[in-house]
Structures are given as C-alpha cells and as structure tokens.
Amino acid sequence: MKILREEIIPAKEYLGLDLEQGQVLRIVDLEGKQVADVVCFNRRNTRERFSASNSKEIQSRWTLTTGHALYSDEGNKMLTIVEDTVGNNYVGGWYCNEESNYRRYGVRGTRNCRDNLVRAAAGLGIGPKEMPGAFAPFMNVIHQPDGRFQIAEPTSRAGDHMDLRAEMDLFVAISNCPQENNPCNGFKPTPLGVLVYQAD
Predict the structure, then answer these.
(1) Across the chain, what does the average pLDDT equal?
(2) Burial of 200 by CB count in 10 Å (0-12 exposed, 13-18 middle, 19+ buried)?
(3) SS in 3 state form for 132-166?
(4) pLDDT tens across 1-23, in order?
(5) pTM higher than 0.90
(6) Could you tell me if 170 and 19 are in contact, meaning their C-beta atoms sit under 8 angstroms apart?
(7) How many angstroms separate the first and last alpha carbons of the chain?
C-alpha cells in the first residue's frame, strides 16, 4: 500500500482529515483498550452526513465489522470496513458529552467526544447541535436481556486496527475518546494512530 498520511492522535485529542473516494483510513489502537469516535461528511455536500440510525437499520446490526458499511442520512455508503482485527465495534450513535458526563458522574468541565468532534470539524461550521452521532471502533457495549446496556473495557490490544475505505469524497472527524469515568478506554485514555493509504 502507498501511505499518503500518517498521524498520531494524542490521548483525549482529535483529528479532521479529507479522504478521497477509494482511499483507506486505518485507525490503530497503539496501546490497547482505546476507543475512537468517527463521523463523516460528504465533502461535496456537507449536509449529507453519517447516520448511525441508517447504518443500523439497513444492516440490522448494533455492531459493525469487516464487510459492513457506514451509511449516510441519505442512505448512501460512505465508508466500508475492509479490515477489522477486533470485531467488536459500536454503532449506537451516541458519544460522551458535557451534559451526560455531569448527569452520570456529577463532574463538570470534562473533555468529551462531542466537543472533540466539533473542534475537528470546525472548518465545516458544524456546531454541537448539528453534529451527528458517531461510529465507535473498538467500543465494547454489552446489551442485557432486561434492556440495560453495560459499557465494558475494549477487547482491543496494542496494534489492533480497522481499515475503512471511502466510497465518496469525505471529510472525516475523529475523536480519540477522552472518557475516564467508565471502562470505555480501560479508565486510561491513550494515543491512536491514523494512516491514510491508497490500496494497490
């Protein structure tokens, strides 16, 4: 593969990048047990954006892995998962934010994925109210028979990765999830690696 871009997203930080149709985005869990939150926008018309709801409904799945796709709010494929070494990812469509952190944990002023994603997409003028729900590679959510769900530590290990192929020209925003108040990141946020490559 021809590597076009290589980045490290520090713990709790974020990244925004352009992705051309056919290019592949690789997200690497460098140390293990670290979740990414990903949203994307059609670069030719940013009103078309990732939809967790459509991605779930079209594929009848709560979790996505190799061969599944991320769909837009217009029902178009945006990204296809072409490789996934973990197999445990979440498309619930939510992310940590200031308000939910306060309600759940009684803390204010926390770093959170919604703020990270808004910062990553600042050039598009996407505010917190317009930010769509996210896809969360490596996130481990357990659904209970009584309707409850449990956030558990990720099963990803150092070096695990996911490859996502762009099906249209995209802007992609990534939050390196800063959550420390539940097992989402093993209670210790760590860096993520990002590669953009052109497949042979």
Answers:
(1) 96
(2) exposed
(3) CCCEECCCEEEECCCCCEEEECCCCECCEEEEEEE
(4) 899 999 999 999 999 999 999 99
(5) yes
(6) yes
(7) 6
